[in-house]
Amino acid sequence: MNADHRREADVNQGRAADPAHSVFVIANAGSGKTKVLVDRIARLLLQGSRPSAFLCITYTKAAAAEMQRRLFERLGGWCVADDARLREDLDRLGAQGVNLARARALFAQALETPGGLKIQTIHAFCERLLARFPLEAGVPPGFQIADEARAGALLAEARAAAALGLGSPQEAFKRFARRLSGDALEELLDRLASRRADFRHFAERRQGELFAAQALRDRHGVVVGSETLVSAFVDALDRPAIWETVETLEASSTNDRRLGGRVRRALDQIDSGGAPDVIAQAFFAIAFNDNGERYKTAATATLTKQHPWLAHRLENVTDAIVALRDRFNASERAEDAAAALALGLNLDENYSRAKDRAGALDFDDLIERALDLLCKSDAAPWVLYKLDGGVDHILIDEGQDTSPGQWDLITPLQEEFFAGLGARERVRTVFAVGDPKQSIYAFQGADPARFLDEAQRLSNRAANAGSSFIGPELRTSFRSVPQVLDAVDKTFARKPLVAAEPARSDVVRHFASRADEDGVVEVWPLCRRPLAKAAKPWDAPIDVELGSSVHAVLASTLAERVKAMIAAREAVWEKGARRAVRAGDVLALVRKRGPLFRELIRAFKRAGLPVAGADRMTLCDELAVEDCLALMRVALDPADDLALACVLKGPWLGLTDDDADLFPLAYGRRVGETLLQRLQAETSDRYASARAFAAALIERADWEPFRFLSWALETAHDGARTGWECVFARLGPESRDPLEELLQRALKPAGHAAATLQRFVHDVEFDAGQIKRELEAETGAIRVMTVHGAKGLEAPVVILADTTAGVDDKPDNGLIFDDDDGPFVSFRSRDDDAKVSQARLGHAQRMQSEHWRLLYVAMTRARDRLIVCGGQHGNAVAGEAPESWRLAVEQALQELGAAPMETPFGEGLRWGRPATAPESPEAETSKPLTPPLWAKRSFGSVTSTVAAAPSRLKQIDPLLFSPRGEGRSRFRRGVLIHGLLQRLPELPRDGRFDAALAWLARQGVQENAREALAKEALSVTESSAFAAAFGVNSRAEAPVVGEVLGMQVRGVVDRLVVEQSRVLVLDFKTDRPAPMDPNLTPQEYVLQLALYAEVLKQIFPKKALNCALLWTEAPRLMELSAAQLAGALADLRES
Fold it and tell me: Residue 835, Cα to own-chain centre: how many angstroms?
């Protein structure tokens, strides 16, 4: 990168972080978006903004956690930095002249902010908002969030009700059931359910379902139904003439006879009283082929020459058929859309009822209810006023992934900033950052065009309000080496990324910050499908692995390539120096979790390489999980013969020989005799372990799921191998991941149901939702993920293994939904009318852009090395689609002049030169890990932790906590005084009394008692006798953690004073009068301070240490002597 590009990067990052402007940043991948956002928050804090005044929205919880980690890491670093280093850091940040003490105080200020810094996902923000205003939002106070599993169960209830319930749209359901198989019908219902809110909004905008359905028919120009159209067509036919045509055609050549046969079949449908749609399809077959294309000719030239009238007659018939087809398809597509609308609305209604019964909201509800609260409810002005009083700065990360509904939610908050009606007059800003090239969540509603529109809207709002707005671009990548960026720029030079037509945002240009570091991009030829399949015995299981699929070959080849890279010490970069590649540097990406995904995980494990496992999984699809559920089914129902047979053949017992093991046990049973009864009656030693294991399962039927699974997996049931070892021996080590997820599921049972085996089995069986496993960190293991799952991640080595498919532009389950025009439904393109064809074309254009954006995200995950390969796709001779990723990158490397290279599948291309890392025995030699000391301790030797509070140390006067007499009120009074002493010293002196009254009011203290409590607290904080305790060197609520007498001690010092030569530990006592003699101080109070003092001596070994109790009722400061403290410790040691 030349100096100009570096200067541009520094200037634009600094401008984006400047809190004086509202900012909309468009940033390339790896250009430091998160850094800029953290810089901006830091600068806002430095200029005096309160931590609680931020609303920072991120796309995922992981992104929010990472942003918070980076911010606290920076603020924490400022706390301990010397003046020169801190000043240099602030200058680099663009915050010259800031008071250093203020910068150091920000860490504590951020930590102590109630509720913490509001860096959160949009769903977390909505949850907080609804919890704060439940009545205004119309949600039940204390509502629960339905996670994916519970939402799926509730939605299954809604689907069943939509199909079979009273009042359900039966005709709409039957309309689709007649044409779709069971799985396809289920998938359509799932798709309708996922868009249920869109159906509702569409109907609401048109005053209800009736008018909405009519709008759909009007859209297609439908006046009469398809049955009427067919009836009119049949009535208009000159059937004698057509029969004459049939006879003429059938007496001619082969092609003419085929045409005659099609016409005859259509006429036969009329004569046999066929259904109107069947008659229509029979006539369509006369003029159109199976692909929906019109035949170029009708009868042969020879026949039409012999019978001149035939051509004219056939032309009239086919023209009538074409006209019928256009009107018929329009009518059918309109009715399909109306049926989808009816089902979608019914699903929405039933799902809402199910959630209401459960008192739950799902993630879509959070957005929608919050949007209604801010935009539509009568309380919206009040809610916005209250929010406006607490938010000064809105920051939006990954704006390209924000859906239109989420932008609509943020809009009213932004408008308050620029309307001049805010609760406070001060500089208030909006910051958004994103990259339209990385918008890959169209299936969740994200629209890159909306992201660009929001930039213009923010600019207009700021201009109208006279506020400053800037829109810098970040083009410099700090992530990838120049070779990767060269390949990216060339690949996308002419690709539509945001719209079907190239736009300004489609221009892809990256500058490399790592210009002095080199890397490699490789493109391999296709991995061709093996020519011959291995023979499979007729009785082999249907899921037997043959290892001969194209996916298996590609996966095993990649595993060997990674092993070879590691063995040859091929280099990647770390902190400016080359080092040898490791397994944890590798990130393998696929488009979908299909066969290749599973084969990659399996191949890496079989090659002896550490693998992090699948990033998502469906529990009920995993064999190891099914084996565990079979154990539970036997425990619950010993008469379940199928479940017991699964257990007998399963990993724990291993009776896998059907002829020798199961058949003798199952054959010849009496009527009503169960398999368990036969097993119990069997005396053969062959079944001894099976009998014992089955009995053990039944005995544990009332155990909780986690306890049951732990017993099954951890116990050595046959005296030699644990359940884990049995499973690994049968299913391989890859079975660990799903079983660990099953254990996690059992460890955290649903709060709405009892934690029983029966409930657990039911929930797992009916949960089709995927479990997301966080694989963000580089843990030393290869990560295999989808491109969507890898969004926001990076790795030194990225392998794109799933690159030969084309644009996935087929509408999901035949449904296309347009926000303005509503639903379009068509399962085959040949059945489209003009409106559906137009919608399908628009959908295809959007999916083409998404196809290339997904490749952009995939390529830009690579830091140093990128390998692009793929297996033969489909049955085409080329083996890949014309729009395949592999082909696009290969063409780019050809244009760059890449050199040929040998690959396992023939000659490929390489851009850049691979390097070998230098030998460094000290850094690279593998050494056995030494376990830490705590790992070697037995459970009995673990030290206990003492909470250094009086009520935790010894039994104190029970009157203090008695519900009778004055004990309870005295305890309440103590808590209030304690709270005031903690807060008042931090406030300006002249405002402390009013602040005390206000705080007491918020705690629910009666008005006649507030003044006395406030005065008592102020008599302490204002007294000159206690000036040191509340001075500049003091701190409230200081946490103390350490070890004393072999015990872990933790507690909170009410007031800690650290002076030049001494440390004062002060503990408030607000619950009783002070004793006249310090020697009469309750022993537990003395011990509490003694423990604090022993810990603090280790922190301040050169300072004098004094301990005192501040009794607030007098008030009186009572210092404890060293002898008292030592005596309390001695008593503790003896006890």
Answer: 35
Q: Is 931 helix (H, G, I), strand (E, B) or coil?
A: coil
Phi-psi region of 969 (alpha: psi -120 to 50; beta: other; left: phi over 0): alpha
User: How many Å apart are CA 596 and CA 604, to the nearest integer?
Assistant: 12
Q: How confident is the model at residue 331 (pLDDT cuts 50, 70, 90)?
A: very high
Conformational region of residue 50, where left means phi above 0, alpha means psi within -120 to 50, and beta covers everything else: beta
Q: 234 CB contacts (<8 Å, ≥6 apart)?
A: 270, 279
Residue 579 is inside which H or E element, if any?
A: strand 577-580
Query: What is the pLDDT, as a whole number, of residue 268?
Result: 92
Residue owning tokens 């909470």: 947
Cα-flanking dihedrals φ and ψ of residue 1038, to 5°? -85, 120
Encoding tokens for residue 954?
Answer: 């010894």
Residue with tokens 């990472």: 66
Q: 969: exposed, middle or buried (C-beta count within 10 Å: 0-12, 13-18, 19+)?
A: exposed
Output the six-digit token pair for 590. Answer: 């696929």
Q: What six digits make up the tokens of 901? A: 């290279």
Residue 780: Cβ within 10 Å count:
11
CA 979 to CA 1001: how far, in whole Å? Answer: 13
Lowest mean per-residue pLDDT among 81-95, 610-624, 728-742, 863-877: 610-624
SS (H, E, C) 54-69: EEEEECCHHHHHHHHH
Angle at 295 between CA 293 and CA 299, to 5 degrees: 170
Q: d(Cα 215, Cα 202) in Å, to the nearest integer?
A: 10
Q: Please count the other Cβ atoms lying within 10 Å of the Cβ belonging to residue 532.
A: 6
CA distance 819 to 754: 42
Per DSSP, what are the bridge partners of residue 473? 26
CA-based torsion, 845, 847, 848, 853: positive or negative: positive
What's the whole-number mean pLDDT along residues 451-458? 88
3-state secondary structure of 422: coil
Task: With CA atoms as reference, report the closest residue to 1083 among 1046, 1110, 1109, 1065.
Answer: 1109
| CA atoms of 1094 and 1091, how far apart (whole Å) | 5
CA 1113-1117-1119 angle, 5° bins: 140
Q: What is the DSSP string of 1084-1129?
A: HHHHHHHHHHHHHHHH-TTSEEEEEEEETTTTEEEEEPHHHHHHHH
pLDDT confidence of residue 564: 94
Burial class (CB in 10 A: 0-12, 13-18, 19+), 930: exposed
The SS3 call for residue 439 is coil
Give the integer Cα–Cα distance in Å for 123 and 120: 8
According to DSSP, residue 570 is labeled: B
Residue type, 592: K
Distances in Å between the Cα of 298 and the Cα atoms of 249, 251, 267, 313, 317 are: 10, 15, 17, 10, 11
Question: What is the C-alpha separation between 559 and 608, in angstroms, rounded?
Answer: 9
Q: How far apart, in whole angstroms, are the C-alpha atoms of residue 142 and residue 165?
A: 30
CA atoms within 13 A on the CB side of 446: 23
CA 853 to chain centre: 19
Question: How far is it, in rounded angstroms, from Cα 1110 to Cα 1026?
Answer: 9
Q: Which of 478, 476, 431 is nearest to 455 (CA)?
A: 431
- Identity of the residue numbered 583: A
In angstroms and rounded to an integer, the radius of gyration of the C-alpha atoms of the chain is 37
List residues bridging with 1043 in a β-sheet: 1048
Name the pTM for this structure.
0.75
Higher-confidence residue: 111 or 278? 278
Length of the chain: 1135
pLDDT for 1090-1118, tens place per residue? 999 999 998 888 899 999 988 877 678 88
- Beta strand pairing call for 1104-1111 and 1116-1120: antiparallel
The dihedral of CA 508, 513, 514, 515: what is its sign? positive
